[in-house]
Design brief:
about 350 residues; three-stranded mixed sheet
């Protein structure tokens, strides 16, 4: 694959800047112009070692996006992207240097083609490149038959289930029920939804999925917009209270009828979506197991209080799937008050606080 000429690179940068000013793309201009990206806040629970930091979960997808944007340089070498992404053990004192990774074996599609060319073949290439960022090379035929917001959300769920091995069939049921039930609800219905309790792990998973939606937006921008940006907005596929309800119902072992609110027209779409996601994961040697937590499941600080060995067992068995390429991955000692991050970069002297559960 040839490198872009200075003229082509200039045209790409101008288009990215125009879209950035008009809020039509997401994060792309900063990567192209400065080779830098920032996400300096996060809602996470440092005591929940089953779920890696959001920055680490979505890093492989970002590496593919960087490859699409930056393409190959002279001699086949890639530029590094400076990431200012906060996560457990990273106080943002300096950026991590992250190398792009080709999403498609054999070469990254040409950015000039993805952004400027027209025609059905190019539309197909945009869509397939987007899917490749989330390790879904072979899912195009099924996904194109779904409504665009559902297809994008399904793509995100496959990626998330593959990256986080602790996610269970109950978690998947809750996510799928959420996206199917949300469409039929008005803003007033969602506002009036009442919850007897809020599960902290459900809040954590909700934050993870919302962060994933921002990754979908970035991939969509990089690939020349195979989806309308409106189709990827959070309110199309996610509501916090509704997800809490579905999460708790699923882990209590509620019936499919209750999970889908008695709407028989959703039964077949529900099973089809689940089947597609499970098959896609199995193709990557990932089997999704049932792991109901019920009403009595206690996580984080409370579980450590009831079982002092919990922290030792889970700290030693959890190995983060990615590490800092310049410094390695560092654990801090857990703090009961939650965690606060402060960036020491001269342009980032502000504080980031994540409350404990």
């Amino acid at each position: 694959m040839r490198s872009p000429t200075p003229r082509e690179a200039g045209a790409q940068a101008r288009l990215a800047k125009e879209q950035h000013v008009q809020s039509e793309n997401y994060t792309i201009f900063n990567i192209l112009s400065k080779g830098e990206i920032e996400c300096s806040n996060s809602l996470e629970d440092e005591s929940d070692t089953e779920i890696p930091g959001q920055a680490l979960i979505y890093r492989p997808a970002r590496q593919h996006i960087y490859s699409i944007l930056l393409e190959s340089r002279e001699g086949g070498a890639y530029s590094f992207v400076k990431e200012w992404f906060v996560f457990f053990g990273n106080p943002l004192k300096q950026p991590e240097l992250i190398q792009p990774v080709q999403p498609i074996p054999g070469g990254t599609p040409n950015l000039k083609t993805l952004w400027f060319a027209k025609g059905p073949d190019v539309e197909k290439q945009r869509y397939s490149t987007f899917l490749a960022c989330f390790h879904l090379h072979d899912g195009m035929e099924y996904l194109q038959g779904l409504e665009a917001p559902v297809a994008a959300f399904c793509c995100l769920l496959v990626y998330l289930m593959m990256q986080v091995s602790s996610l269970s069939m109950e978690d998947l049921n809750a996510f799928v029920a959420l996206v199917l039930c949300l469409k039929g609800k008005s803003a007033a219905e969602l506002a009036s939804l009442q919850l007897a309790q809020v599960d902290s792990r459900g809040v954590h998973l909700g934050a993870v999925i919302v962060r994933g939606l921002s990754t979908l937006l970035m991939a969509n921008s990089a690939c020349g917009f195979p989806f309308r940006m409106d189709d990827l907005m959070p309110w199309q596929v996610f509501d916090g209270k509704l997800f809490q309800e579905k999460y708790q119902q699923s882990h209590r072992g509620c019936s499919l009828e209750e999970l889908l609110e008695g709407n028989e027209s959703l039964y077949t779409p529900f099973e089809n979506l689940k089947s597609f996601i499970c098959k896609a994961c199995m193709a990557k040697k990932r089997t999704i197991h049932s792991r109901p937590r019920g009403n009595g499941f206690i996580t984080g600080t409370l579980q450590r209080e009831f079982n002092p060995r919990f922290q030792q067992i889970h700290r030693s068995s959890f190995v983060p799937p990615y590490h800092n390429q310049t410094r390695g991955f560092l654990w801090r000692n857990p703090q009961p008050q939650g965690r606060e991050y402060r960036s020491c970069h001269p342009d980032r002297r502000r504080r980031f606080h994540v409350p404990s559960r």
